[in-house]
């Protein structure tokens, strides 16, 4: 009997976070719930279900905005763009699963950034982003060309996922400075590898990114969000795996071409 009681108690504990989402107290929380359900469906590769949820989101969103929900013009634009990308991703059978996850995760993080009254979900990607950035910087300082490009591609993929959410939570001047540095490092990769000024840009960008995460991080996140945060972690792994796989595939094709040329 005691074992049965403990099992029942454990199940109730596990269900507690979901109960917080089961009865949203506002229309915006309902939108947040729908966006999360869509992400879970994509994670399970149930793309048709995800598509239906995204269409349902659109209907609810129109109702809320029609009732005078005070979204700013920037928020409306960011939500619309992220939603359109998510819809396109779940409907595109030619798009890989990891890329679909990235698009819908981006949308999910945008809605959370708008609705969250606690630590936004995008801050939970601090660890992977700063780790990849540190490895990229080390590769640049050591002149490791291949490792630098690989880590930079991984960083850009992760940065792209959280970028719309940053524009919601961070002031425009800060975002413009960071985005300009990211664009410079991506566009002028050879200079970053060989010139001191380029490597100084890496140092400055690393500091700017860390400041953003530090400013947004609170002591405690809403406990009901932890199950969503855990789900988001799998997206990070998929993102890095996807980038690594593309690089590996490209290197293999390059090797095959070289071997063919030698034979000829």
UniProtKB/TrEMBL annotation:
Transmembrane stretches, start-end: 225-245
Keyword Transmembrane included in the entry's annotation: yes
Top-level lineage group: Bacteria
Keywords per UniProt: Membrane, Signal, Transmembrane, Transmembrane helix
KW Membrane (keyword) present: yes
Signal peptide from the UniProt entry: 1-22
Name assigned to this protein: Sporulation protein YpjB
Taxonomic placement: Bacteria, Bacillati, Bacillota, Bacilli, Bacillales
């Amino acid at each position: 009997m005691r074992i049965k009681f403990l099992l029942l108690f454990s199940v109730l504990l596990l269900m507690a976070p979901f109960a917080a989402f089961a009865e949203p107290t506002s229309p915006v929380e309902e939108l947040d719930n729908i966006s999360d359900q869509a992400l879970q469906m994509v994670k399970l590769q149930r793309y048709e279900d995800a598509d239906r949820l995204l269409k349902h989101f659109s209907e609810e969103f129109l109702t809320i905005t029609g009732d005078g929900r005070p979204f700013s013009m920037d928020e409306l634009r960011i939500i619309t763009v992220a939603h359109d990308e998510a819809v396109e991703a779940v409907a595109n059978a030619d798009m890989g699963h990891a890329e679909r996850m990235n698009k819908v995760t981006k949308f999910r993080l945008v809605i959370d950034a708008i609705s969250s009254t606690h630590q936004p979900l995008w801050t939970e990607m601090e660890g992977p982003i700063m780790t990849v950035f540190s490895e990229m910087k080390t590769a640049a300082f050591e002149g490791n060309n291949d490792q630098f490009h690989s880590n930079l591609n991984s960083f850009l993929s992760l940065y792209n996922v959280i970028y719309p959410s940053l524009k919601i939570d961070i002031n425009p001047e800060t975002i413009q400075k960071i985005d300009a540095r990211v664009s410079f490092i991506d566009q002028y990769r050879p200079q970053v590898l060989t010139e001191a000024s380029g490597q100084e840009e890496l140092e400055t960008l690393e500091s700017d990114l860390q400041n953003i995460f530090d400013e947004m991080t609170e002591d405690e996140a809403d406990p009901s969000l932890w199950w969503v945060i855990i789900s988001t972690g799998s997206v990070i792994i998929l993102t890095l795996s996807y980038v690594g796989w593309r690089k590996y595939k490209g290197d293999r094709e390059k090797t095959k071409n070289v071997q063919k040329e030698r034979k000829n």
